[in-house]
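hey can u check if this looks right to u? its 336 residues, i copy pasted from the old doc so theres a chance i mangled smth
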Amino acid sequence: MTMKAIQQYAFGGPDVLRYEDAPVPALRAGEVLVRVHAVGLNPPDWYLRDGYKTLPPEWRPEVSFPLILGTDISGVIAAVADDVTDFSVGEAVYSMVRFPEGAAGESRAYAQYVSVPASQVARKPARLDHLHAAAAPMSLLTAWQFMIASADDVQNPLQPAPHQPVALTGKTVLINGAAGGVGHFAVQLAKWQGAQVIAVASGAHETFLRELGADRFIDYTKTAAWDVVSEIDLVIDAPGGPDAGRFLPTLRHGGALFPIFPLGFSAMDEAARRGVTVSTTQVRSSGAQLAELAGLFDRGVLQVAIDSVYPLADARQAHERAARGHIRGKIVLSVP
């Protein structure tokens, strides 16, 4: 039995993505088979597509071709393994599939069917259609696990100590990259927890972010945040990377900086001098957390923004859109 999927046979740019027939995945013990209705795009998709060039060579996983990208899905259960009792055929579900353990291509979400460990599946929020549900998992779980609760007690691969979220009630939180996938969820979670929120993004996103709850907005194209704010309790730097240290002067002694993408950060000595905690973690699949978050969607606490939608066959164009940047919310593939 075959399905339509996006496959690639070599690393490279968006042009390596091919829409073609592929085998429907076999169902194994502990899994459900999902008929996919929509797929959410995330940065690890293009990192894997081009061979994880941003990672040190020793961190790059072994990859087998043909490769199917993707982790975030929303769809309907088409089959369940004999030992799965929590889900039934016909239920609408969403998931972040096999991440990070499937980072070498085992998640295989750019397809009409995906097999998923039942522990990583949750029932789709009733208030969201499949497009919006597929846009949520990785970005929302990232914000949740950084800010609210970690996924499990697995050793943090990015630092010796476990990542510890900080209490947000009554605190001032600055979110850089606030209009993007992780950022726009971070704004909402911080506000839900009772924080004062400063959102940093380009000026085109001001109205959008104020509607999500931002108390103050800084247009980074006109003003450097570190020149106009100080005594911040927590900075969530969604882009992260080598430049995250720029935000250290904005933090009070005892404050915290959470770079979502930590690679290249080299200002630990300065952070120590300033009495600032720098911490990061690896987002992990969790059906239990997605079930909890579904409740927040259904109660109207959270909403998800979609930047653009492309048919599965146009995954190449979706990746080209991602490469242009300045994304508001998430890019989504609709699956026929």
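The chain is about 20% helix and 25% strand.
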